[in-house]
Amino acid sequence: MAEYKEGDQVGGKFAYPIWQSQTRKHGSGYEVADENTQSSSKDIAEDEKEADFVHFPWLQRRERFKTLSVFNEPQCLITINDKGVLEVNESIVNEIELIDVPLSVVAITGLYRTGKSYLMNKIAGCQNGFSLGNSVQSHTKGIWAFCCIHPLVDQQVIMYLDTEGLADVKKGNSDHDNRIFSLAVLMSSTLIYNAKDVFNADDMQKLTFIAQLSDNIKAFGDTEKDKAVDKAVLMYVSPIFVLCLRDHFLEMDKTADEYFEDCLSVGENNEIAECIKQYFPRRRCFTIEQPAMGKTLRQLSETNDSELSKTFISDVKKLKDYIERCGAKHVVSNRPIDGLDFISLMTTYVSELNTGIPMNLEEAVISASIKHNEKVYTSVLRWLRNEITFIPLPIPLKEVLQTKFFQLQDEMIRLYRKDAYPYGSDCLEAKLQEKMIEQWKDLRLENSVCITKRCKTLLRKLDTDLMKDEEFYNRDGMYQRFKDDIRHVEKMFYEQMNGYDKDELIDPIEDYKDSKKGIKAELSRKEGERTLLKQREHLEKRLEERFQEKCEAMEREKNEYIEKERDKIFENMLKQQEMSTRILTETIGQLHNKSAKRGCIIS
């Protein structure tokens, strides 16, 4: 097996083994750099050029990421043109697609002119941060992105999304807010909702877009599915909801989380509060004091941290620490998404929003799975081809060669299933099987070429050691000696090539004997050829039967694996829903108990 450099990506990503040499070194001691081997290496090089994604060791990835503009300053990811159509920035999309490690996506949303961009700059630690406005009008347009290496999790990237302010009366289009918020929900693993000071009934009433999430997002393409299913799936894929109360100065006799839950429990039949509780079962609340006063407050973008309130700095740090501990983005799967998955999901959502239809989670996941699995397919196939080059040829027995290939085959399927998403079509695994058969045929051919070269080298040596020149055999009575010497060469050849498949030795020795005119034992040779031919057919049949049995066993394993994965997914969904229901019931019970106690105290 190939060796990997220290620091290579592990646990789901494929790095290239060290290319020590393109010339195979064989057990015989002879080096073979034939045209077939060189052609194989050339094919691998061409595949690397054609591949859209090349995986590097982590340290090299970090250096590569630093060259991307989205890692240096915020970039506009999604814009909205004058006709209200969402447009993606292709150049930034191409950069994000190169992020081939798990993504933690933090999005901030909230009413316009509430200081979202400033807070996001503080959380992200971005020097050339998100642009700030100095008026009462909404400043950020569309959705902006900024990426950085995750400060806590190795081999992971954290992406910050700054979204356009909501409830701007000048836009006059509530559907605009619905689309922005729905995108933020589906694209993020952690969603920060920025609010001013308190979270009262008036503030909650402005969150009508939350109540409309189930209208904008559908779990499945089947329109006959019950709406409750959409809500359940939406709850499962929703991000952690973080309510951030800015410029907070009131004293509270409870924690921020308890305050948030109390706000959600005030009043009966409050649809928005119920939607928050239903769609965001994982939620937290943080309070942040006003950063400064007077003139300093109006010039925050030019103010150093040393001039800001220490409490503000401390509050932001608590929020930042919590966000950085939140996990990567997942989409109905236990596998985190990377840049390609993120872009695939996002473009599907944007496309559906532009058509005016609800965003379809199933379609987006399948689309992302196809692109993701194509990348995994390319990586695994490249890995297989590379590992084949490190098999020390020649291997005398085809069965031994096939066993080694089976080991690579099993490892390849394991790697593919480990990283591939179990959604959509499984044609890529079938395509891998076809490629494996091609690789097996190529490997057998290359092994035969290597054996032939060794045979010819050995025969040349035996001919030099055991045979005399033609003048020696031209003397009277030397014809029998000639035939005896030829048989002796053949005997020594088979003795020294003992352990090789006999059929591989036939052509070299026959070529040698054909080069020595005067061989008379034609009938005996033909009888021997017929015997060896039967042995060859029997061996070929055995090899084919073993290969067919292996393919059938792997097909059964694949079907069982897919069925188990699907069962796990739905089981996890049911457990999550059950857990959320239990937590909600317990919370309501606690709140009722508190209310009852307060009632007793008042009475």
Number of helices: 21
The coarse silhouette is elongated
Q: Enumerate the strands of the largest sheet in spatial order, edge to edge or round the barrel.
A: 4-3-6-7-5-8-10-11
Measured on Cα atoms, how large is the radius of gyration?
35 Å
Distance between the termini: 78 Å
Percent helix range: 55-70%
Based on DSSP secondary structure assignment, what is the total number of beta strands? 12
Describe the structure.
- The chain is an alpha/beta fold and 603 residues long.
- The chain folds into 4 domains: 24-55 and 373-449; 68-357, Rossmann fold (3-Layer(aba) Sandwich); 462-543, no CATH class; 544-603.
- Helix content is 57%, strand content 10%.
- The chain has an 8-stranded mixed sheet with strand order 4-3-6-7-5-8-10-11, with helices on both faces. A two-stranded antiparallel ribbon has the order 1-2.
- A hairpin with a 5-residue loop joins strand 1 and strand 2.
- The longest helix has 81 residues, at 522-602.
